[in-house]
Design a protein that fits this description.
single chain, about 220 residues, alpha+beta, 5-stranded antiparallel beta sheet, 6 helices
C-alpha cells in the first residue's frame, strides 16, 4: 500500500531507535565471541518474551515496560547484559519482534487482496505496494501485481541508475509460488525486464508486461 495509507506503521518513530540499537550492540559484541553469543541469546529471548504482542500498537505500549521484558530474558537465558548496553539489548529484541509483526501483517494483507480479487472474479491482485511514484528516489515506488491464474507477479519499481543516480523505472516478473496458481512450463526468468527513464513509458511497460503474462498463461 502506498506511503501515507491508513495502515501506517505506529512503530515508525521508535523503529529508528531500535535500529540504532542494532548498530550499537552487534559491532561491540563481535570483538568478543563469547559476548556476541550472549548478546544474541539475550536479544532472541527479548523477542520471544514479546511473542504475545499481536500488533504494532501493542508493541509500542510494551516498550514502556522494556525493563521487565529484559529481566525476563535474563532470567530465561542466565546471560549477563554487557555494560552500558541495557537499552540497546532491549531495542534489538523489539526490532526483531517488529519485523516479525510487519511480515505477519504483510502476509495478511496479501491473502486478503488475493481473496478479494478472486471473489470479484478478477485475474490480477495488487499484493504489495509502497512508496510514491511521483517522488522518484526520495520514496522509491514498488508494486507487485499477481496474476491469479498463474501465480506470476509483475513487479514495477523505481531504482537508481548506478552511473547517474537518477530514477530508472523497472518492470520485471517473479513467481510468487502462490498455492492455487500454477503455471507449468512458464519460467518467470523468461520474461525480459523492461527498463526506462521515462515515467510515461514505464506505465506502458507495466501494461505490456501484464499482457505478456496473460498470454503465456492462456
Amino acid at each position: 500500500m502506498p506511503s501515507g495509507a491508513s495502515d501506517a506503521d505506529p512503530t515508525a518513530v521508535l523503529a529508528a531507535h531500535w535500529n540504532e540499537s542494532e548498530r550499537r550492540l552487534y559491532p561491540t559484541a563481535t570483538t568478543n565471541p563469547d559476548a556476541y553469543q550472549s548478546a544474541v541469546k539475550l536479544v532472541r529471548a527479548v523477542a520471544d518474551a514479546l511473542v504475545d504482542v499481536s500488533d504494532l500498537e501493542e508493541l509500542v505500549q510494551r516498550w514502556e515496560y522494556r525493563s521487565a521484558v529484559l529481566d525476563a530474558a535474563v532470567s530465561a537465558t542466565g546471560e549477563t547484559i554487557a555494560y552500558g548496553l541495557t537499552e540497546a539489548t532491549a531495542g534489538c529484541g523489539f526490532a526483531i519482534r517488529r519485523r516479525e509483526l510487519l511480515n505477519e501483517r504483510a502476509e495478511r494483507q496479501r491473502r486478503e487482496s488475493i481473496n478479494a480479487a478472486r471473489q470479484a472474479g478478477q485475474v490480477w491482485a495488487v499484493i504489495h505496494e509502497q512508496g510514491d511514484l511521483a517522488s522518484g528516489l526520495a520514496d522509491p515506488y514498488q508494486c507487485m501485481e499477481m496474476h491469479l491464474p498463474t501465480g506470476l507477479a509483475v513487479v514495477s519499481m523505481v531504482e537508481p541508475d548506478p552511473s547517474t543516480m537518477t530514477p530508472v523505472y523497472v518492470v520485471t516478473v517473479t513467481d510468487t509460488g502462490e498455492p492455487g496458481g500454477g503455471a507449468p512450463g512458464i519460467d518467470a526468468g523468461s520474461f525480459e525486464d523492461l527498463e526506462t527513464a521515462d515515467l510515461e513509458l514505464f506505465e506502458e511497460n507495466r501494461r505490456a508486461m501484464r499482457s505478456r503474462v496473460e498470454t503465456a498463461g492462456a
